[in-house]
Write a structure and sequence with these properties.
The relative contact order is 0.15. The strands form 4 sheets. The protein has a 7-stranded parallel β-sheet with strand order 3-2-1-4-5-6-11, with helices on both faces. Strands 7-10 form a two-stranded parallel ribbon. The chain has 339 residues and is an alpha/beta fold. The model has no long low-confidence stretch (mean pLDDT 96). It starts with a strand and ends in a 6-residue tail after the last helix. Helix 3 packs parallel to helix 5 (94-112), helix 5 packs parallel to helix 6 and helix 9 (273-284) crosses helix 11 (322-333). It is 39% helix and 18% strand. It is built from 11 helices and 13 strands. Helix 6 (149-167) links the parallel strand 5 and strand 6 (171-178). It binds UDP-4-deoxy-4-formamido-beta-L-arabinopyranose. The site of UDP-4-deoxy-4-formamido-beta-L-arabinopyranose has 19 residues, from helix 7 and strand 8.
Amino acid sequence: MKILVTGGLGFIGSHTVVQLQNSGYQVVIIDNLSNASLEVLEGIVSITGQPPIFEKLDLKSKVAVQTFFKTHQDIQGVIHFAASKAVGESVVNPLMYYENNVNTLVYVLQELTKLKVSNFIFSSSCTVYGQADSMPISETAPIKEAQSPYGNTKQIGEEIIKDTCQVYPNLQSIALRYFNPIGAHKSAKIGELPIGVPQNLIPYITQTAIGKRDQLSVFGNDYPTKDGTCVRDYIHVVDTAKAHVVALQRLLNNENQSNFEVFNIGTGQGSTVLEVIKTFEKVSNIKLNYNIVDRRPGDVVTAYADTSKANKILGWQAEYDLEDAILSAWNWQKTLKKD
Ligand code: WQD
């Protein structure tokens, strides 16, 4: 059975390709290589021994998308990761985000609605909740005004899919709202490859520890939390990847209750930035050089998932804990060149 993974050379995409291949699916990857390199393809093959079909393609070209689906009529499912995801970048370049995250989604959905049956998994995000009023955050929490154009593209994306599913019953969809995916495959052959200065906490920590960065800046310790730093739900990227396979199987087996379902993908545990640093120091036996600076605009104070819906309905549960995830990120960082 052939599954298309858009953005399949990205961080979560590449780990999902591995899990799909391990589950016996034939995988077609589309990636425009704007935020990934072909080395990731080698990493995937070195893990699974199965070369996915790869097509370098930019989904911003409607014609390219139409041509692709004409030559791949036998695709049984699509997992759509291709999007830009840097919150700060989206604030300074909103139109790039709306073009890259929204137009591309529309072009893919237009082709899927022409197919008799199509199963569509959408890469969404806890960002859609904004600062939720109560913890843990459930799927029924109100969707608040987006904190950034990036978050808005995820909210808009879910709305587009929901509206389309109402008109095209052949389109069966699930949106997965990830919390904070971190870490790397245990082989350390694939992992997170931020281009330039990392925006996210874990790669910044590991790059500081390896000597690529001088010091980690902790963005504020005056929040109303146990130690004053923000709380997030850090989930191992392999657990996140496995959730996509389970969600796809739900659609392929026609087990879904409606043709648009939403699930939180997290561990259900919140950790502060300082707790993450302490955990890194414990698993790596390295004292991390960090200092406290001003808050980062747009940060929510606390976000961790109520995962009971995914646990019960998908039969999916995160298996790795924070230590496992951070150690896997460190093992991956040690394989990378320092320059
Ligand atoms: C986590 C915490 C920072 C860097 C991410 C992605 C976003 C979305 C949701 C997918 C915050 C603090 C960070 C640093 C720090 N993912 N921090 N120093 O903001 O929750 O968003 O997950 O949809 O695309 O960006 O994750 O890792 O950026 O920050 O103190 O150098 O770490 O303030 O409290 P975030 P993050």
